[in-house]
Structure formats: C-alpha cells, structure tokens
Amino acid sequence: MIEIKNLHATVDGKEILKGVDLTIRPGEVHAIMGPNGAGKSTMSYVLAGRDGYEVTEGSVTYYGKDLLAMEPEERAAEGVFLAFQYPVEIPGVGNTTFLKTAINAIRKHRGEKELDAMQFLKLIREKTKALGMSDEMLKRAVNVGFSGGEKKRNETLQMAVLEPKFAILDETDSGLDIDALKIVAEGVNALRSPERSMLVITHYQRLLDYIVPDHVHVLAAGRIVKSGGKELALELEKNGYRDFGASEAA
Amino acid sequence: MAAQPETVEQVRAVTEQKYKYGFTTDIEADVAPKGLNEDIVRFISAKKEEPEWLLDWRLKAFRVWQTMEEPQWAAVSFPPIDYQDAHYYAAPKKKAGPKSLDEVDPELLKTYEKLGIPLREQEILAGVEGSEGKSPAIAVDAVFDSVSVATTFKAKLEEMGIIFCAISEAVQKHPELVKKYLGSVVPYTDNYYATLNCAVFTDGSFVYIPKGVRCPMELSTYFRINQANTGQFERTLIIADEGAYVSYLEGCTAPQRDENQLHAAVVELVAMDDATIKYSTVQNWYPGNAEGVGGIYNFVTKRGACRGKNSKISWTQVETGSAITWKYPSCILQGDNSVGEFYSVAITNNFQQADTGTKMIHIGKNTRSTIVSKGISAGKAQQTYRGLVKILPRAEGARNHTQCDSLLIGDQCGAHTVPYIESRNRSARIEHEATTAKISEDQLFYCRQRGISEEDAVSLIVNGFCKEVLKELPMEFAVEAQKLVGISLEGSVG
C-alpha cells in the first residue's frame, strides 16, 4: 500500500505541491487529471526521487517504508517504476544492454541471483512477444530514433521486464495518435494485476477510455480537489478544469 | 544545464579511480649520469654495443635537435622542461641479456604480474595448449625503463619467419632490416621530440612479418617507467611485407611520482602491397594527482606509411593517462587504394591536458581514410582534437570521413576541435562531422529510475558514447580498456 500524506514539494524554491493526500492499495489503478501547471509531473518526479524536487512537508509510506528517504535507484529496486512522458535517448547503449543492466541491478538489490545472458535473452523474448513487439527494437540504442509510439512501447516493455509493484504513467498519451495509444494501452492493461498498483497521470480523458481506472482525482494548484469513480473523467471532459479555479492558459 | 555536484563527484570517482599502477619496484639499476650531451649519446650507443652507422645517425639527430625549438602550437601548457635534469638511460642491473624468462630478475617478473601480464604463465599455458587456433595467445615484449626485459613466444614466431624482439636485439641480429627502415617514416629531422628520440632512444620493439604471412597471435609490448627522473624514449618499428597481416598492442604504465616524467616515443609502421597493420594502444601513464601534481608528459610521434597498393594501417587508441598528451598517429597513404583508419577514445580528468588527433596524407589514387575521435573531459581537463586531412594532386578519387564527438562532464572542462583540411584534387570527397554533448541529468535520472546506480549509469553512458571505437579493439585488449574506462563492454548479450 502507498500512502501519501500532506505532501508539499518545491521546485527552484517555488511551492508546486501544496498538501497532497492519496492512498493507493495493491491492484488499484488511480488516475490523476488536472490542468497544465497543476503539479502532475512534479508529483511523478517527487515519487521517483528526482534531484531538484524538494519535499518540504508530508510523507510517503511505501509498503511500510519511508519512500522519500530512498535514492531513486533504491525506489526502483523496491518496485517503483516511472513511465516517462519524454523517454530519454542514450546513444550507443543497446536497448538489450540497458535492460539487462537494469534488471540485474534490481535483482542484486533484492538479493536475487543475476540473470546470465541466456536467461535474460529468454525472458526478454517472452516479454517482447507478449507485447507484440519486434526484436528489431531491442537491437537499437535506447530510444534513439524511435517514433513517439515506439518510445512509449519501449517504456511498456521496460515495465514488463522490471515487474514493478507501483507503476506511475506520466502523460503516457502525449505524442501518440489513436492507433499508437491503443497499442500502448493494451500493453499496460496486460500488466494489470492484483499485486500491482498504477498511478495514471493525464491531461485528457481519452487515455482513460483504454486504461480504465478504479479512481479518478483532480489535481489543481497543487492539491487534490476532487475524487470520484471513472465517471468523473467524463465529467471533466465535458466541463473542463474551469470549475477548479484553474486558468486555461496556465 | 550544469550537472549536479554529486554527479560531478561520482564521475570524478569513476574516471579517476585510484591509479592502480603507482607502485615502484626496488631493483638495482644501471643509470647514466644526469644530463644530455654527445657523451651521453655515445654512452647509450656503447651500452647497446651498436654499430658505427647507428651511432652516427644518433649524433646527427642530436646535432639537429640542438638547433630546434619545442613546438608551441599545441593547446597545452606546462613549465619549461629542463632536459639536463634527467637520466637518459636506466637499465635493471643484470649480467648479460636474458636468454629466457628464467634469467630475468624475479622482482621484475613480479612487477609485470602486478600489472596483469604474467609472462611466465602465458608461455607455460601456451606450452600446454600447443595447438594453434585455440584461445589466441599474445606474444609480449616487456620494456622496463630503457630496456626490453623479456619477449615471449619468440621461438614459435620464428618458425613462421616472424621477427618479434627488442629493437636493440634487432640491431644486432637483423641490421639490414633496421638500417633499411629505421627513420624511413619518421626521419631524424622530423620534430623536436622525435629528433630527441632518435638521439637517445634506448629500446622498444621490432616486428617484421614476411611476405604472405598472417601473424597468428596478437603481438604486444608493455612499457613501464620505473626509475625516478628518467625519460623513456622507446622506438618501435613494424614492417609488414607484401600480403602480411599483424595486429599489435601497446600498453603503458608508470609509478606514481610527484615530478613530471617525459615520455617521447617514436613508432614507425611500414605496410607493403596488400599488407595490413592494426596498431592498438591502451595508454595509462600516471596522469598526476587530483591537484595536477606529477604525471607523465606523453609527447609521442606515431606514423605509418602505406607504401604498397591496397595496404591498410589502422590505429586504435584508448588514452586515459598522462598529465599531458601530445600525439597524432598518422597515415601516409602512398600506395593506390590504400586505407588509413584512426579510432580514438581520449579521457581527461582533473588537470589533464590532451592535444591529440591524426594526420591522413592522401598521395595515391583512390586512397581512403576514416577518422573517429571520441573525447571525454571531466574535472578541469582540457582536450583538443587536432586533425589534418591532406589530399595531394595525384590522389584521384580520394575519400575521407571524419567524425569527432566530445562529451563534457561537469562545467569546468573544455573540448576543442581543430580540423585542418587541404585538398588539391577536385575529385576528392572529404566529410567532417563534429558534435559536443554533455551527460545530461535526464539520462542519469532515467537510468537510476530503472535501478542503475549513478556510477554504473555514467559508465553505461560513456561506454555507449565510445562504442564505435571500443569495438575496434582486439578482444584480448577490450578487457584492459574496460578496466580503464570503468565500463562494462557492450554486446556481451545476444
């Protein structure tokens, strides 16, 4: 279980999160919606532990542990996964090498035996096949020359391989056309399980047609101002974020 | 965006590591008095029992050197070197030249073991295995201060007509070859440091691959400066006769000392018709400490001549050491259809300075050259790529492609690219690409979010950046490079 309590965070001295409360149980999918500048991406970076995002107040308890006290790589090893809005390119580093380094770092942290080349190859073939991806993508450098859709699919593959307990999907729909969106959403849905929680961050309701959440929250001006079921998303689609005091031009 | 201080710190730790080869060995040495004059040149020549023609050549070089001035055009700065305040000859004391490893001072063998080159083991292993083709062995020539102390696998190579020995030994046993080729690529009038080398060179390796022979193993030399206040002036000469092939590896280390030590080597390569020479270097001379005290001045002249048609010379270098590097491995593409290649990774950290690059001189028709240079700067280091591509009027259809990438770590280092291009033939095609990048916080955070520690992330990213060059290294040497760069080699999977 993940418990976020009264979370305040600043970026460059400016307070962006102003007291967020949220509880996510195993297996649940929560969506966070909100206007630009509400603090959605800040929230994902704070949970993942990015430098420069300073928590000034509040706590995040992750399966009984203090999440905020951990380094980013420790959080990853404990099962926190962030699917990036803009996946980063790493020239010259093969996708396979990257994934193998990542999974073995995590296994090592957990006191598990590292996978050898053959075991890893078997695992990754299985996962790519399940996601309907081509092997060709594995041979390329991490995200280099990938289309928007390919980058997001690559994030999904990483998630499938690393098997997180808590996945944060930051604006996964941005930059995707409807076909690519469907494919990525299918991949994500395939990874839903009773042990895995997800936090889906999005500006548009569209994504939630495909990844149907259990709960929807509206984040505005650094606070969760409204929570409800999946129907809340449809309401927002109709009325926009004006009701929550956000200016459109944020 | 500037890197976070912690990142800079991590990177420093990774690239600096601790200089592992900083020990000295207690061996009684035979040292020439300090200073440089004609008597010293004669002393060295006499110690080596050299023939008259070689002494004359040395003396001619010395007289030319006295009229020369140190080059000032490189983007490096250092206090003036007092050439009189160094020893120009130091040799481990021994009776006669070692006939076999059994006669080599055990202290010396221990040193090489510490450096990771167990000479004896290699020979024994080879003796046990016997069969060719199995895990390729490496023949090693070890140069300690001024003297070659042991060359392994000599007998085996001799069966094929391959000569691989200390150059001082080649002077005695194969004077006709040495006389014919020594100074034929880098003449004794070439430049300040090369000319000094001609006058006082002490030892180095000599390789001759006869017509049509493909050398079955990597040939390797390890250079080590042990004695304080000595310069190392080694001379390497490699000749690949018609249709021959050889892959040669060079590694270097030195003890950790507070004073700067001069290393002014000369390497000459000659490739005849259809011959190929692949020359790889992993240079890890002591770079000085974090405050910039001490370290080796590496002022080296390396040049290869593609004399014959369809010949090929390929330089691959991984440069992580030295306080100052001044080095431009070059190719003279004389034969028609000859090929020159230069692949380089240079890593500078703290106060290291490197001015390095290559020269490709296209003389023959349809000559081709490829330059791939990867520079990584961290700390307060400064690095310059300096490259010349010259196409002469007769070089119909010549082609060159240059790619020059710099990676900056932190905000106090610098990278500079200085290409010189001269074309005197209209049919020539020359391409130059250059990029400068930083390891971004985005990349580091992305890796860490996937569970990879910051240190490993830096290694991964740097490794990716250098990949094109590292894959050119022979497998046997890749491990060495991996240790040095602190990276795990790509491609171990699938």
UniProtKB/TrEMBL annotation, chain A:
Keyword Nucleotide-binding applies: yes
Keyword Nucleotide-binding attached: yes
A Pfam cross-reference name: ABC_tran
SUPFAM superfamilies: P-loop containing nucleoside triphosphate hydrolases
Record keywords, A-Z: ATP-binding, Nucleotide-binding
InterPro entries: ABC_transporter-like_ATP-bd, FeS-cluster_ATPase_SufC, P-loop_NTPase
Top-level taxon of the source organism: Bacteria
Positions of the ABC transporter domain: 2-246
Annotated GO MF terms: ATP binding; ATP hydrolysis activity
PANTHER family: ABC TRANSPORTER I FAMILY MEMBER 6, CHLOROPLASTIC (PTHR43204)
Family of this protein: Belongs to the ABC transporter superfamily. Ycf16 family.
Protein name: Fe-S cluster assembly ATPase SufC
UniProtKB/TrEMBL annotation, chain B:
SUF system FeS cluster assembly SufBD core domain residues: 223-465
Sequence ranges assigned to domain SUF system FeS cluster assembly SufBD N-terminal in this UniProt record: 151-215
Coiled-coil segments: none
Entry's transmembrane regions: none
A Pfam family reported for this protein in Swiss-Prot or TrEMBL: SufBD_N
Top-level taxon of the source organism: Bacteria
Family: Belongs to the iron-sulfur cluster assembly SufBD family.
The protein, known as: Fe-S cluster assembly protein SufB
